[in-house]
Design brief:
This protein is an all-alpha fold. Helices cover 84% and strands 0% of the residues. It has 3 helices and no strands. The mean pLDDT is 92.
Length: 99
Amino acid sequence: MTLGIVVDDTVHFLSKFLRARREQGMNAEDAVRYAFSTVGTALWVTSFVLMLGFGILALSHFQLNAGMGLLTAITIGFALVADFLFLPPLLMLFGGRTK
């Protein structure tokens, strides 16, 4: 379940990065800035809302639901951190090559 959410956020960021590189001819650093400016807020808000929703599920008295809600919220949080802190440097390092 969380794999789909995590991959969707990453693909969303990567698609904006590639659009900036291909269609607008930006270098890697500017393309990362473009991706942050266009989808950064959307990724933050949707991830926060999902974490809040699954966090509320963690308050359930039924332990299977509570555990699933807590682990899902934590996974989405770690994925957001990875998308914001680890993905941009990797894109600048390996996505900066021109043809």
